[in-house]
C-alpha cells in the first residue's frame, strides 16, 4: 500500500524533511486500544507504543496519538514499533469528554469531511445536528448531513424533514440514504474522493457501520443490536477504526455518541449560526450577548420571525457551554500553575535548608 492511498500529502512530507525525521518510518494510526496503537505503513501493519519522553512531556490528551494521526516511528521486528512524534494535524474533531468538565476527547484527526448521520425514524433531532455542525466547523472539517433509514418512513416524511432542516441549516449538503435499498448511495460515492478522509459521526444504531461495510463491500465492522439482551452495553462499535476503501477514500467509523459536549469551539458557533452572526453585526453594543440588550439586532430578528427561535435558543445554550468549558480550563491551568510554583518553592527551600 502506498502512503498516498492512506491520505499522505506534500505538506506532511515537507514537514518530515524539514524536521529531520527522514530516518523514521511514516505511518497512520488506524486504531487505538489503551495507549497501544495500530499503525499502517508501507511496510504493513504495526502495533506501537509512544516513547517515554512523549508520555512524560504530554500536557493533555492532544499530545497523545489519535486515530487518523500521522506519526514518525521506528519499527523493531515485523510487528512492533515505537512512535516518536505526531506530525502536524490538519484538523482535530473533539468534544468535551463525557462527565469530565474541562477535559476534551479527540474523536479523530486529519479529517477532510464528516458524515453526520441521523436516522429519520426515531433519531432525528435538529438541535443535535447543529451541535455536530459546530464541532465540525470548529475544526475545519467539512460537514455533510446524512439522513439514514429512509426505507422506514414515507416520502412525505422525508420531504418534511428536509424542509425543516433548511429553515435552520442553509449551506450544508444533505444526502438521504437507505442502507437497506442503497438508495442515495450514488450521491455518497460521488462525494468520496481517493486519498481524502471521512469521519462517520452519529448516535448508536443509525447505521454508521452498515454504511461503511456496504461501501467497502466487506464486513469490516460488526453491526446490529447486540446490546440489551447480552448486557454488553448499548454500542455495537466499541472503538474507532480507520478503513481504506479500494480505489476510493478513507473512512473512520466511531462508536455512537450520546452526548456532543461543546469544548473549545473557536469560530465553530459563528460558522454554524452564520445568520445570527450576520444579524449581530448591527447590534448597538459591540459586546452584545444577544439576551436582553436594547438595540440587539438578533433579538429583533427573533421577534419579527426572521430568525428561528428554537435555533437561537440552541445557539445560546451552546455559547453558554463553550464559556463554561473555557472558564473550567482557565481555572485548571491556574491551579496547575500554582501547584508548579509550590513545587518549585518547595524544592528551593529544600536546597536552602539542606533537608
Ligand atoms: N431499515 C434500516 N435499517 C438499517 C439501516 N441502516 C442500518 N440499519 C440497521 O440498524 C442497526 C444498527 O446499525 P449499525 O450499522 O450497527 O449502527 P451504528 O451506527 O454503527 O451503531 P453503533 O456502532 O452502536 O454506533 C442494524 O441492525 C442495521 O441493520 C437502514 O438504512 N435501514
Ligand atoms: Mg457501529
Ligand atoms: Zn445582540
Q: What keyword list fits this structure?
A:
binds magnesium ion, about 20% strand, 11 helices, binds guanosine-5'-triphosphate, alpha/beta, binds zinc ion, six-stranded mixed beta sheet, 13 strands, about 35% helix, five-stranded mixed β-barrel
Protein described:
Strands 10-9-8-11-13-12 form a six-stranded mixed beta sheet, with helices on both faces. The protein has a five-stranded mixed barrel with strand order 1-2-3-5-4. With 355 residues, it is α/β, with parallel strands linked by helices. The protein contains eleven helices and 13 strands. The chain has helices at residues 10-18, 52-57, 126-137, 155-168, 185-191, 208-216, 227-230, 268-272, 274-280, 297-303, 309-353, and strands spanning 25-33, 36-41, 44-50, 70-75, 80-86, 92-96, 104-109, 113-119, 142-148, 174-176, 197-202, 241-244, 250-253. 35% of the residues lie in helices and 22% in strands. A hairpin with a 4-residue loop joins strand 4 and strand 5. The site of zinc ion has 8 residues, from helix 10.
Could you tell me how far the N terminus lies from the C terminus, measured between alpha carbons in angstroms? 60 Å
Read across the widest sheet, the strand sequence of neighbours is 10-9-8-11-13-12
Record field, number of beta strands: 13
Helix content: 25-40%
Strand content: 15-25%
The radius of gyration computed from the alpha-carbon positions, rounded to a whole number of angstroms, is 23 Å
The helix tally amounts to 11
The string of secondary-structure elements, in order, is HEEEHEEEEEHEHEHEHHEEHHHH
Rounded average pLDDT: 90
Oligomer: single chain
| Helix-strand category | alpha/beta
The stretches of 5 or more residues where confidence is low (pLDDT under 50) are 227-233
Shape: globular
Instruction: Profile the largest sheet.
Output: 6 strands, mixed
**Hetero ligands:** guanosine-5'-triphosphate, magnesium ion, zinc ion
